[in-house]
Give the backbone structure.
Amino acid sequence: MHIGIDSFVAEVTDPTTGHVVGPAERMEHLLEEIALADTSGLYSFGIGEHHRREYYDSAPPIILAAAAARTERIRLGSAVKVLSADDPVRVFQQFATLDLISKGRIDLVVGRGSFTEAFPLFGLDLADYDSLFTEKLELLLRLRDEHEVTWSGRHRPPLVRQTVYPRPVQDPLPIWVGVGGTPESFARAGLLGLPLMIAIIGGEPRQFAPLVELYRRAGAQAGHAPEKLQVGLHVFGYVAESVKQAADTIYPGWHQMFSSISRERGFRPPTRGQFDATSGPDGAFFMGDPDTLAEKIRRVAEQLGGVDRLSMQMTNPLLAHADLLRGIELLGTEVAPRVARV
């Protein structure tokens, strides 16, 4: 199993000094984090996409290009690219160009996103939520797999014997489908033979086992080889020298972040009890010291019938830069080797 990190490039306030890290300084910190992930032995680093005040990741290809120029080994990718709100032609061109810059180290993870701000921003109708993604994914795969494309659909002007350049180093460019919890999404990824990235943000990871089985069964029935049907997990967590230190470091920012989202969506505010329960052995949060974290990763992988990749999302508005660097270092030098030995 490969271990990596995902970042939503959140606005950060230093919890000790109260200093609000500005956008330029936050980008500087982010590139330092990616460089450390590269030298610490982590497999991948993904950048999310949001169009909200508290995040600075609205243009992930630009961030990834800067990261590609500063790293040598680590794979870089989207986490996820909101394909519904973009043009598949431009998405393919951008990520093919990134693949050239990085010399073949790019993964494109596409999805619909968990927020809806992109729809009004780009003049899209939220009623087309499903059809936009389905149609644009179809076109993106055609652009990847065919040199000359003739295509028509509802949401974009047609293409007639059109070629798209540049072509990436990797042939084919890896395209993953990011999913939440709907059976249709799992089945569609399996039928297309695309690797799957599951966002686990609540509940218990083992609850996804029937959906993973559905994905694999759909892929097998469509004639795809088992090795094509890779499963990745996008999870929230943090690693420190002890379980308590990890939880205490992350909780204040988690509470602030989810209190804001709860107000927006009319939910009850989150509590420390909920956080601790979700951080436990069977919960969705991957929190603890290296041994605890490695054991949990191994157990969850077994529950899901095998996992190829796990990407830990440490985005937190009250996490000091030094603490985040320490978490990255421990994940790469302590957790990843423990997992790889199994």
About this structure: Residues 233 and 310 are 5 Å apart (CA to CA). The longest helix spans residues 243-265.
